[in-house]
User: What shape does this take?
Amino acid sequence: MTVSVKDAQADLLGLIRRLPPGDTLTLTDNDVPVATVVAAPVTALRPPPGLWKGKVVILSDDDEHLKAFAESAS
Assistant: This one.
């Protein structure tokens, strides 16, 4: 998208918010490009798997507590 600096001044935040991630907004002055704004990519809301690898140790498997939980849930 290309917009003049004069037009962008009226609603720069709105223009930026409407940009799809990774898309660009080119600002011009007298039809000459003077700046480019690039929309940031969307960041993951969840952390990547494996962050706790090597930091957590499971000492034993314990299925006994699951039986008690199943009985109380029914």
The chain has one domain: 2-42+49-73. The chain is about 30% helix and 20% strand. The helical segments are 5-10, 12-18, 64-73. The mean pLDDT is 85.
